[in-house]
From TrEMBL, chains A, B:
It is an enzyme of class 6 (ligase). It catalyses: tRNA(Pro) + L-proline + ATP = L-prolyl-tRNA(Pro) + AMP + diphosphate. GO terms for biological process: prolyl-tRNA aminoacylation. Residues 35-477 form the Aminoacyl-transfer RNA synthetases class-II family profile domain. Its main location: cytoplasm. Transmembrane segments: none annotated. It is found in: Cytoplasm. This is Proline--tRNA ligase. SUPFAM superfamilies: Class II aaRS ABD-related (SSF52954), Class II aaRS and biotin synthetases (SSF55681), YbaK/ProRS associated domain (SSF55826). Homodimer. Belongs to the class-II aminoacyl-tRNA synthetase family. ProS type 1 subfamily. It comes from Paractinoplanes atraurantiacus.
Amino acid sequence: MLLRMSTLLLRTLREEPAEAEVPSHRLLLRAGYIRRAAPGGYTWLPLGKLVLDRVAAVVRAEMEAIGAQEVSFPALLPREPYETTNRWTDYGDDIFTLKDRRGADYLLAPTHEEMFTLLVQDMTSSYRDFPLLLFQIQTKYRDEARPRAGLLRGREFLMKDAYSFSLTDDALAATYAEVRRAYQRTFARLGLEHTIVSAVSGAMGGSASEEFLAASEVGEDTFVGCTSCSYAANTEAVITPAPVPVSRELEHLSVHDTPDTPTIASLVDLANARALDGRADWTAADTLKNVVVTVHRPGAEDELLVIGVPGDREVDMKRLDAALAPATATLFDDFAARPDLVKGYIGPQGIKVRYLADPRVAPGTAWLTGANEPGRHAINVVAGRDFTVDGTIEAAEVRAGDQCPACDGGSLTIRRGIEIAHIFQLGRRYTEAFQVDVLGVDGKPVRPTMGSYGIGVSRAVAAIAEQHHDERGLLWPDEVAPADVHIVAAGKDGQIEAALSLGAALREAGVRVLVDDRPNVSPGVKFTDAELIGIPRSVVVGRRLADGFAEFRDRRTGAREEVPITDIPRVITSALG
Amino acid sequence: MLLRMSTLLLRTLREEPAEAEVPSHRLLLRAGYIRRAAPGGYTWLPLGKLVLDRVAAVVRAEMEAIGAQEVSFPALLPREPYETTNRWTDYGDDIFTLKDRRGADYLLAPTHEEMFTLLVQDMTSSYRDFPLLLFQIQTKYRDEARPRAGLLRGREFLMKDAYSFSLTDDALAATYAEVRRAYQRTFARLGLEHTIVSAVSGAMGGSASEEFLAASEVGEDTFVGCTSCSYAANTEAVITPAPVPVSRELEHLSVHDTPDTPTIASLVDLANARALDGRADWTAADTLKNVVVTVHRPGAEDELLVIGVPGDREVDMKRLDAALAPATATLFDDFAARPDLVKGYIGPQGIKVRYLADPRVAPGTAWLTGANEPGRHAINVVAGRDFTVDGTIEAAEVRAGDQCPACDGGSLTIRRGIEIAHIFQLGRRYTEAFQVDVLGVDGKPVRPTMGSYGIGVSRAVAAIAEQHHDERGLLWPDEVAPADVHIVAAGKDGQIEAALSLGAALREAGVRVLVDDRPNVSPGVKFTDAELIGIPRSVVVGRRLADGFAEFRDRRTGAREEVPITDIPRVITSALG
């Protein structure tokens, strides 16, 4: 490959594009890798297409290395299979739906569990056909409420989705582990530093799932690690350790006037000032905060729900949504319509709305909470005695320093990450929905169990850009760089011809070359563009061409070296290993 | 590459699939290359994906060889650009449209002229940036009224679409010629025998266009060739040669009772029986048939139109649609609502509906036609004297033996073909719509002129299958076969192990291998499957393995040869050239 910048469709931007908030988006736009074509839809320009193809090639190679077989499904699919599994409804507004000219319902598929299940039903009949591991690298669609950050959250994107079919739970676990290792190899090759964390399965269903999160400050996901064990989880999936049971004698519930205490802080101040219950050591953690939300369940009426959490914590709406999926929740604020819910003074005792509480609100715990009357609170409100919960829910915020749920004495740290992959042990949800049975070894029917494994291919390009850039531009890992070497013709005294002839020689040696042969661009602009574009190494053919020298530059280390131009091919090929 | 049939997702079908009408569809289903996933939407199974990728690779390589640059656009696009060029309306029901969660209009793009034009507007500014030739290989959507014949006419399909931008008409013509030659090389490599014919531009717009039609009896297009010159055209685009002017004196129009002559045949019989005008040599060609159609123009009211053609020809509805595009027409039959149109007795004299006639109905020609009264016809109805036409239209059927419009004395032959490519000199329709101007050499703004060039990549797979099969199965050209060699393990006395080890050795030599290592399948079934799958050459490891021999088979010629198994790699690599 030899690309010439004199003819390449490339226009680097000096200014920061107004539309871009995060470094990867900004740099991919500025360096001419992508352009916005639609809300949440991007065009891959020639350099971007090369990077995307290289990322996809690594993903494909590692899938093929574990025996996965590549297929390709349509993106435009009929409603019926998704109706059978309820996902047509569960996904709600998150999927694009449309009607064809005859009025039949279609969707642009967000993932293909249904179709792979039907294919396997069509093409297999006996235990001899299993296990099966199939994948595709295909355009996916999601009608994101808030497409953002360029390729990080788009509405049309490239995914590698894979599906496994096994006859036993052990076989599924083994395939799951194999794909997990293949993903680790994939991301190692792509230069993506990542953490594998426990995750929530969401609308996909299934029992267990893990996410691969690429560490990044601009990531939408937060995840925890433990200071002393290997526990790691998406914040959405963090489980709150059960509280230590309290053995002390509990007083009777009593109600007190607490005027003008609609907030936890004002309530704690008043409780200490008045020495309620004879104490002056009240903290927010002693109070029970009750948050009213409206739950939106696709295909059903909205309903009210009250969430109880210790008053020193907020309700984390992402954790709440994860716990309620496929339903979602929004804060309720129409208190005028519900006089039974006294804003700022709600307590769980006698509440007429469905009530779910944080695991810390365990039976036997006592709380300072609202008395369901304006300006009044109650103390010694005991869970299981004065009120009962309709269930527990993991919706309270997770904080750095929280106790690790997996070990004794460890505490949690929190980081941000970009979800670059998600793997699921789905189980038999889909094979049951379609009643897939095959002949077992013993002659009896067996229902296969499934795994589902996704990598965001276009998102991975952005994640790599997030992890591999500096203030001057991008800095691609070798495995995904659009070219191996960037030759800059810095001068007009034969430098362009020399650069092109060096490029041709390198191409003959199998090196992928970009030559900046633009005749009307200054060396300074060319150097700036080269750093912005971020090819790992460059060769400057400049003034010393007359002496037979060129300069070899390493983008990452900044090292520069004068090298006889005839030696360049040897230097490059040895640098490429 | 080494694929093992014992694990490959492949199930060949013995029976003819009920859904398939044409050989390519039947064989691609039976041999396990594709499966239907939706109306007009197909899944590529592992072998099919390999063929599709190989076809795409040839298309890509030939585009890159002429300096075309690959990009990739979203398929889901906002309405506005397509509104600007009127295509949102012109395509009518032929495109899939949808709304996002906010109610904004989107379409699944059928082609991308608008987006490429906007991209070039964004990324260029001066004559130095031109010419530009860009392409993508991308999934396209059309809401076909009648998806049929598997991959030949689907609603979701893979296309290579390319767009050129030039500053002068000559430069456009040169690029057009270069792409045309690249397409000829592409189809030669793909083994597609084809004819390049003049075509109609349709909703795309533009001045000149040609189609590449792969000869096939199941093709939807018919095209003509000339027996004595190089003229070739899609039947839709055939121009009727102007008739030789008649110099004889013309009689006055006279009306005659012609009871019970609603058809041309009955009219001619009666005219001869009664010796109308003193003649008994009336033929259908002397009569003028007037066909009433309803014209459906996207975004407008339906309107009536009468088409006049010589009575020995039918109106060809495809030619009519091509002439009216983007409008379409259907036969009108509600004569009760229009008493002025006397069914079976319509004449153009005094007609109150828009009237377009075949070019043969030239000024000065005289006709036997309806008198606009039940049971009456008129003779000596002279065009230009007794009636005037609102225009001419190319809607009469084209017949083998018709006079060639391009030379003297040649006559037309008719064949069927599959449209595998269409190339257009679009001109400035799109750059005008978006007001694209760049700085010219002389400092003045220049408006670029465009070409657009499409290859149906998935359709090409089907076209290859149509041209390369026999009664036993498919027979792929080397360049696109899913593997180079198919090794059949015919026996259980070490044949499977020997076949696999031969396969491994061939893979090391860079040969792409499919091994039939299925342990529970008889040699007969394996041979049948091998012929169905259609890999160009196979090696049978059978009974003579004990003597160190295998059989080399050529699928195309049927030749078989016993070869020492140690010689097989040499035989294969020499066969592969």
